[in-house]
Design brief:
With about 800 residues, the protein is mainly alpha-helical. It is built from 43 helices and 1 strand. The longest helix has about 45 residues.
């Protein structure tokens, strides 16, 4: 063993182990001491260091316990010689070894450091050893050196005291000598040790605080670095440039934080459609698999999550590597990520590994692993029905049923189980096995307090039971359309109601329309409202014409949520009427009249006047009494008053010829509409002219109720024509172009106003023509109840008012 200790070619650990073994053998001590005294070469120097290290590492006993004799006294002298050798490393290890000797060591060291005749190097070496012996006497010895004549000794003693007593560095000599030292002198050894323990705790708190501050500062700089790199990455446009940028932080990169950051960016990047299915996805699949087996668990996790987001056809070649890692993976977060990726890839071999995890102990497993395992089973079974045999699904269904979690805090797990059962139940091939193993669990799940469990159970049972599921869902005491407990449940269970209404839409008939309507009135969730409306209308489509008509009558008075139903039920009713008539069936006149009237009303409500007119025209084609038809004609005329459409005005012209015979009062409303249109507004003037030309001028004079009314309309036509002429004169003066529509309407307002030159004739010729038209109109004095003088006075007053409005002082 001595040769091993001496041999410089032997590994240091082995040399030290042999030296420790020799220290346990008293007969070998002399040989070890002899090695201390040999100073022929560097090899012997390292041997002495090895022996000192062996002594220093002998045991972990407290150096405060002076009763323990760690090594024989015979080693003390050689160790002192090594301490004072002048070789820094040897001296340091000798100091640590001397601490284990105890017998008289502290006294001798105290004498050494206090001896001013000793060399400063020896005294400093003694302080290095003495500071390792922490007791009250040693502290007092070192305190005495604070007034030493050698500055180096004073400084080294101050450093030693700071370290021993957990005092701030550099030591405040004056404060220590005047405050701390007098306290220490009054203490006995136990009191000193208690005081030292309190100082140690204070130092530990300070150290922890500094560590925390350092960590926060380091995290701040790290975050700033990663933020800058993320911004730089986001500014890159080319996918190839982005990938190259991230590769520099992934490939041959030893720093875990950098690789994790790069993989986080890849995960974010993979969420975009262009990456998931684009050319860059293939490059990512070539890059990422090497990190599936990485030593850093977050790297493995992020790699699996990134692959799970890419198009499964591109990623599919990595399935074997992901499965192999899953078999040996121990980190729950990574297991979950691997299962997620394999579920996305619809890997049938992974199905059995997932089932193995469930069969072992699903309750004892980490929830995220179990959740992803069940999710993977559901995805794979749902997607690979053609590959999985009935015998295999029997085994899978039995495993899922047996491992179904029932503890109260496992709602998330129960939801995943029911989702998996739903996916299996959706496959027609697997429904016998699903019904056998799942039906009882799913019916119990309808009463689950968590909507995330109840909702998929509704969908799954709908697949298994078909129409028979509706009594289960809608019969008291389990009526899932009503949440009678409280408002919070009403909000939480919206997804359940959505699922129930989906089943009603799929399997329900006329008997479910009334419950749907009641629920619609109470419902607050917009998605559920939309679903109820869809289900209601789908069932309506399946009803007979008579039943649809009855529901159309009920839905006339509607609230906001029934508005869609009131509109769509009329559309459905009209479609049924049209199909029946096309098939040669006789349709009740009331059905047609009601459907057309409601469609016209709805068009008016939606501000679609032209559509409304077309529905009224269809009503006019029915064999109904003239009184009804006149109502429709009046509607058309009134719509024409409120809209600028020429097509509606033409329809009103036809209606006017008939309605005026029996309802002359219609003229009052037309007159009111015309009089409301300003003669000074170009657009309103043109509209006024069109109404008079279309609805009044074509009427035979005998159809007007009285000569007074006839004169009133003649006056309006004249005023309108004169205003149009004035308007055209103004346009000619300003731009040299008149309004062609206005010229045409003039001819319709008065048959005498037709002699107008072409629009490309000289301006002067057209101006003279307008003057001629004016003189034609004014050549026949208009008969008025107020008389000509009154009328001329009114025109004079009007002109004065116009001049006044143009005056700069007019307000």
């Amino acid at each position: 063993m001595i040769q091993v200790v001496r041999n410089p070619d032997t590994p240091p650990e082995l040399r030290q182990a042999n030296a420790q073994a020799l220290l346990q053998d008293p007969q070998a001590h002399s040989a070890l001491i002899e090695l201390f005294q040999t100073e022929s070469d560097n090899g012997d120097l390292t041997t002495r260091i090895i022996i000192c290290q062996a002594i220093a590492a002998l045991n972990n006993e407290s150096v405060i316990d002076q009763s323990v004799r760690a090594v024989p006294r015979s080693f003390i002298e050689p160790l002192f010689q090594s301490l004072l050798s002048g070789h820094a490393e040897l001296s340091s290890w000798a100091a640590q070894a001397l601490v284990k000797c105890h017998d008289g060591v502290s006294e001798r060291l105290a004498e050494l450091v206090a001896d001013t005749l000793e060399t400063p190097a020896h005294r400093l070496a003694g302080i290095s050893a003495l500071e390792l012996i922490i007791d009250r006497r040693t502290v007092l010895t070192l305190a005495g050196l604070l007034n030493d004549g050698d500055a180096e000794v004073r400084g080294r003693a101050a450093v030693a005291l700071s370290e021993m007593l957990y005092l701030p560095e550099p030591l405040n000599d004056e404060q220590f000598l005047n405050s701390t030292l007098p306290q220490l002198r009054k203490m006995n050894e136990p009191a000193f040790l208690l005081w030292l323990m309190s100082r140690q705790k204070a130092r530990l708190r300070d150290t922890n605080l500094r560590q925390q501050q350092d960590q926060q500062e380091a995290a701040l700089w790290r975050d700033r670095f990663f933020q800058a790199q993320t911004e730089k990455f986001n500014l890159l446009v080319s996918p190839d440039e982005k990938l190259k940028f991230l590769k520099d932080y992934l490939v041959d990169q030893q720093e875990d934080l950098l690789r994790i950051w790069a993989l986080e960016r890849i995960n974010d990047w993979c969420k975009t459609a262009s990456v998931r299915v684009g050319p860059i996805a293939q490059q990512l699949v070539e890059l990422l698999p090497r990190f599936i087996v990485d030593n850093q668990h977050q790297v493995r996790q992020l790699t699996a999550l990134a692959l799970a987001q890419l198009d499964y056809k591109i990623v599919h070649p990595t399935a074997d590597a992901l499965l192999e890692q899953l078999k040996k993976e121990t980190e729950p977060a990574v297991q979950a990520a691997l299962l997620s990726a394999l579920g996305t890839l619809e890997s049938v071999p992974a199905l059995w590994q997932a089932l193995k995890l469930l069969a072992e102990d699903p309750v004892g497993q980490v929830d995220i692993v179990v959740q992803e395992a069940v999710r993977a089973v559901g995805k794979i079974c749902g997607a690979q029905a053609g590959v999985i045999s009935v015998e295999q699904i029997e085994q899978i269904a039995a495993c899922l049923a047996q491992s179904y979690p029932r503890r109260p805090d496992s709602a998330g797990l129960r939801s995943e189980w029911v989702q998996a059962m739903k996916r299996i139940a959706e496959q027609e091939k697997f429904r016998p096995q699903a019904s056998k193993h799942f039906e009882k669990i799913l019916i119990q799940a309808l009463a689950d307090p968590d909507p995330g469990v109840c909702s998929p159970a509704v969908y799954a049972l709908s697949e298994l039971l078909g129409r028979e599921v509706l009594p289960l869902l809608l019969t008291e005491p389990r009526n899932l359309l009503d949440n009678k407990d409280n408002e919070e449940n009403t909000v939480r269970f919206a997804t359940v109601r959505f699922a129930v209404i989906t089943a009603v839409e799929k399997f329900g008939g006329a008997e479910y329309l009334a419950p749907l309507r009641r629920r619609l009135d109470q419902e607050t969730d917009p998605d559920v409202v939309h679903r109820i409306q869809g289900a209601f209308l789908k069932i309506l489509e399946s009803l007979s014409l008579d039943e649809t008509y009855q529901w159309a009558l009920q839905l006339q008075t509607t609230g906001d949520k029934e508005e869609l139903l009131s509109v769509e039920v009329i559309r459905i009713l009209w479609d049924k009427i049209t199909k029946s008539k096309t098939a040669g069936a006789v349709v009740e006149l009331d059905y047609e009249k009601f459907a057309l009237s409601r469609q016209a009303e709805i068009a008016e409500q939606k501000n679609l006047p032209l559509q409304a007119v077309k529905w009224y025209q269809k009503l006019l084609a029915l064999k109904v009494p003239e009184e009804y038809k006149d109502n429709y004609r009046e509607k058309i005329i009134y719509l024409a008053m409120a809209d600028d459409s020429k097509e509606i005005l033409q329809a009103a012209q036809v209606a006017m010829v008939e309605v005026i015979k029996r309802r002359p009062t219609v003229l009052t409303r037309i007159a009111r509409a015309c009089d409301a249109l300003s003669l000074s507004d170009d657009k309103q003037l043109l509209r006024r002219a069109e109404i008079i030309a279309a609805l009044i001028i074509p009427l035979p004079s005998r159809t007007l109720p009285s000569s007074e009314i006839a004169r009133g309309w003649q006056r309006r036509a004249t005023e309108t024509a004169l205003a149009l002429i004035e308007q055209q004169e103004k346009l000619l003066a300003e731009s040299g172009k008149e309004n062609p529509e206005a010229i045409k309407i003039l001819a319709r307002l008065d048959g005498r106003l037709t002699s107008y030159p072409s629009l490309d004739a000289p301006v002067q010729e057209r101006r003279e023509a307008l003057e001629k038209l004016r003189s034609i109109i004014q050549s026949v004095p208009e008969k008025s109840d107020s008389g000509p003088d009154t009328e001329r006075k009114q025109k004079t007053d009007d002109k004065e008012q116009k001049k006044s409005s143009k005056s700069p002082n007019a307000k």
